[in-house]
């Protein structure tokens, strides 16, 4: 029988195979630890920059809703402007909202000779820049009065259950019979833009938009020079109708609600239907088109309703 002999000049190392295996395992553990630490570090950095509560905490007293009103001082009387401001300021005070009043002239340099009605879009972007922590922006035409000062926008429109009950699903987005219809599967949690239609169009005089990535995208698309220079008959109104019908990304975030919810018209307004005429108890009355009709007077149309609104406020 033969026995293995030890090598010359030394002895055979004890457990040499086990030592090599332990060394390899230690290297693997080190590599895994380094990779794990790198992944955790990247996750923490990503979370830090994605978390608004870390990089920019919401200041105390921040309004959840900003009311945006774009005035045209060149076309409106001082008395009219004073009344519009008083109406909005009283409403905002009742509910802890903030007003953003702008003038068309503030944005003339951005309009590139487009109709002045386009100014509401840069005004909304301006308001969002100044109020980055506010959730909703309510654009309301200067030719409108809030008639129910004690109804909050949350309870009247934005509460998820309330909005769900108001959403018009599977209806044409452009009257009377557009083949493009509102999506039937949407719920209130999908909605970033709340608007109404009248007998002729989607109407831009009273709508709510939620601040965020969608709002930035949507307002950029809407204000694109291609649309501003296209000479739509109704400027930004027809541009919006085009966008909603051709961009499902927008349609997937849009809710149509009954017109009188936030956009009831005075009886002399064009495009008004029987279901769209203001009735006592409606949230808003709009004197739609009063500024462009030589037969009508915005001041005179507002007079009666302003007195009614003042009486409601005083009685309370």
From TrEMBL:
Give UniProt keywords alphabetically.
Glycosyltransferase, Membrane, Transferase, Transmembrane, Transmembrane helix
Coiled coil ranges (UniProt) are: none
Gene3D superfamilies, per database record: Spore Coat Polysaccharide Biosynthesis Protein SpsA, Chain A (3.90.550.10)
Q: Which Pfam families match?
A: Glyco_transf_34
Drop me one GO molecular function for this one: alpha-1,6-mannosyltransferase activity
What parts of the sequence cross the membrane? Answer: 29-49, 55-76
Q: Which InterPro entries match?
A: Glyco_trans_34 (IPR008630), Nucleotide-diphossugar_trans (IPR029044)
Q: Do the record's keywords include Metal-binding?
A: no
UniProt GO BP? protein N-linked glycosylation
Recorded GO cellular component terms are: mannan polymerase complex
Q: Does the keyword Endoplasmic reticulum apply?
A: no
- What family does this chain come from, according to its entry? Belongs to the glycosyltransferase 34 family.
Q: What is this protein called?
A: Alpha-1,6-mannosyltransferase subunit
Could you tell me which species this protein originates from?
Aspergillus ruber (strain CBS 135680)
User: What's the source species' lineage?
Assistant: Eukaryota, Fungi, Dikarya, Ascomycota, Pezizomycotina
